[in-house]
Amino acid sequence: MATKILSFATKALRRREALAIRLASHSAAVLSRPAQLTELGNGIRVATEDMGGATAAIDVCIESGIEIMGRLVSVPDFSNIENARNRVFREMAATDADNEAVVMNGLHAMAFQNTSLALPVIGRSESLSQLTQEDCQNYVNTHFKGPRIVVAVAGDVHHDDAVKSVDKSFSKITSLYDKSEIPILPRTRYTGSDIRIRDDAMPLAHIVLAVEGAPRDSNDAIALNLASELFGSWDRSHGGGGDTSSYLGICSAVDNTTHGFRSFNISYADTGLFGAYFVVERMKQEDVLWHTTYEWKRYCMEITDNELNRGKNSLVTKIMRNNETPTAVANNTSAEVLTFGRRVPLGEWRDRVLGLKAARMRDICTEHIWDRCPVVSCIGPIEQFEDYEVVRGKFSWVRY
């Protein structure tokens, strides 16, 4: 059995409040029961834009798992805030040591300037230092309300039993904003820009290049997911070498263009990011930029139904694999209920993907990629990586 509780987070999150849910997951109300957490398998996890937590348990522990999730949101105990603060500080240190996480945080900071999406998922150290119990409680009072919470349960569980457990454990959750104002949801603003941290002592450059994507509830998101599958991923550990369907993967295997890369399409409530992350040597960065923009512009002008079929098969397989476990099903169900107001059947996802035609794919890629302002985040020996004006120009150059 897997239980997922997801609270739709407002875009008005400010620095200290954004960390309250993490402190709640480490609070005494939850961590005072280590035996039960061990029984439940993987304990509490916290998501990003939509604040949430998940538990996994065998069928005899269903009620205990739901009870712990209920305590997390209804009666969180922030009295042990110092220990929780130290745990989050250690998570921050681990994140700062991960170059991919660093450039992805920089990407969001530049793409969504002065919005809550610009903040790191783990938060900022100066904000955490000033966090008080009152801040945490205000966050709970503002965000953990009935209409903003979804509890999804998947696996070997009876529906009626789960409903009774949820009614009991979440009985203190109300829909009234008696102690705080109803949070507003301002629209997120995208800004094409770049951030560069040059460090010639590093052996490799870590680069992220992206454009604004589509929201979760947009039909364009499926096309951009398909484009991401076509662009693909590759690294030197792949046993196939140059025998890959990815254009940049072939270039990397034959000409050592990259040490590795992965494409991504991240969708949020009202915006998104479509792009790719690269690990590159210092003298190969110009080639990577050329090959990447070449391929993306080709999606806008030359993509065919034949080529699209390969990407469709890959994307449908990925969707199916993302629903293999009860935890994944609960996670996807809760996210879909918040986004669409219902659980989207796998057959419907499959039909949406297979129904996409090449002409429509070209139109969507043209809307989101062609002649659009990109956002760049990079760290390492990046002297060869071209200026932003040059990068911007490559998104509309006809002689691609």
Q: What is the secondary structure topology, with strand pairs?
A:
Elements: E1 2-7, H1 20-25, H2 28-31, H3 34-39, E2 51-56, H4 62-74, H5 81-96, H6 99-111, H7 125-129, H8 133-143, E3 149-154, H9 159-169, E4 194-198, E5 205-212, H10 220-231, E6 233-235, H11 247-255, E7 260-267, E8 272-280, H12 285-301, H13 305-321, H14 326-340, H15 346-354, H16 358-368, E9 375-380, H17 388-393
Parallel strand pairs: 4-9
Antiparallel strand pairs: 1-2, 1-3, 5-8, 5-9, 6-7, 7-8
Helix pairs in contact: 4-9, 10-13, 10-16, 12-16, 13-15
GO cellular component, one term: mitochondrion
Pfam family, one: Peptidase_M16_C
Main location: mitochondrion
Flag low-confidence runs: 1-5, 7-14, 37-41
The order of strands across the largest sheet is 4-9-5-8-7-6
Helix content: 40-55%
**Domains, number:** 2
Description:
One of its GO terms (molecular function) is metalloendopeptidase activity. Residues 131-315 form the Peptidase M16 C-terminal domain. InterPro entries: Metalloenz_LuxS/M16, MPP/UQCRC_Complex, Peptidase_M16_C. The chain has 400 residues and is an alpha+beta fold. The chain folds into two domains: 2-169, Metalloenzyme, LuxS/M16 peptidase-like (Cytochrome Bc1 Complex, Chain A, domain 1, 2-Layer Sandwich), CATH 3.30.830; 194-393, Metalloenzyme, LuxS/M16 peptidase-like (Cytochrome Bc1 Complex, Chain A, domain 1, 2-Layer Sandwich), CATH 3.30.830.10. The chain contains 17 helices and nine strands. The protein has a six-stranded mixed sheet, sandwiched between helices. The chain has a three-stranded antiparallel sheet with strand order 2-1-3, with helices on both faces. β7 (260-267) and β8 (272-280) form a beta hairpin.
